[in-house]
């Protein structure tokens, strides 16, 4: 039986653990991508479904998979503001220094969107604050551009 990626995406988005377990047991490709390049893990994380994310990770989903724009699940949760999922991803080996299409990192997303709790988590897990995006801007530049003084203080202290 061919498992449709949309079944996986739907179960991941809604947090339907029973459906996910069934699909995993049937041999679903946990790293399959939909038309935007989203994997089930990316969708679970973007939708704040920590139990689904944990199930997918424990079943072998690629923690560093990216969508067609180069965005990873970790970048998404730093944009959305989900610290518990960020910790889960980092504990499963998520690379905080991967860069998406414009050179942005999870740390940059956290700084730009005022997710200072996530900034601290990423720094505790070794995120590199010296990386520059495709415009040559650092995380310090992006935090300053957004008026995020607290982030600048956190970055300077790290």
Automatic annotation (TrEMBL):
ANK repeats lie at residues 8-35, 36-68, 69-101, 102-134. Keywords: ANK repeat, Repeat. Gene3D superfamilies: Ankyrin repeat-containing domain. It comes from the Bacteria. The keyword Repeat applies. InterPro entries: Ank_Repeat/CDKN_Inhibitor (IPR050776), Ankyrin_rpt (IPR002110), Ankyrin_rpt-contain_sf (IPR036770). The keyword Repeat applies. This is Ankyrin repeat domain-containing protein. It comes from Mucilaginibacter sabulilitoris. The lineage of its organism: Bacteria, Pseudomonadati, Bacteroidota, Sphingobacteriia, Sphingobacteriales.
């Amino acid at each position: 039986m061919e498992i449709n990626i949309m079944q996986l995406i739907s179960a991941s988005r809604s947090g339907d653990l029973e459906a996910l377990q069934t699909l995993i047991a049937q041999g679903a490709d946990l790293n399959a991508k939909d038309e935007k390049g989203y994997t089930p893990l990316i969708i679970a994380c973007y939708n704040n479904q920590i139990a689904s994310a944990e199930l997918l990770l424990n079943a072998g989903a690629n923690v560093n998979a990216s969508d067609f724009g180069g965005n990873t699940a970790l970048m998404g949760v730093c944009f959305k503001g989900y610290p518990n999922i960020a910790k889960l991803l980092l504990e499963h080996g998520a690379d905080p220094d991967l860069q998406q299409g414009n050179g942005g990192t999870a740390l940059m997303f956290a700084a730009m969107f005022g997710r200072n709790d996530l900034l601290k988590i990423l720094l505790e897990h070794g995120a590199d604050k010296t990386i520059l995006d495709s415009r040559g801007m650092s995380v310090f530049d992006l935090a300053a551009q957004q008026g995020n003084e607290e982030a600048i203080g956190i970055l300077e202290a790290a």
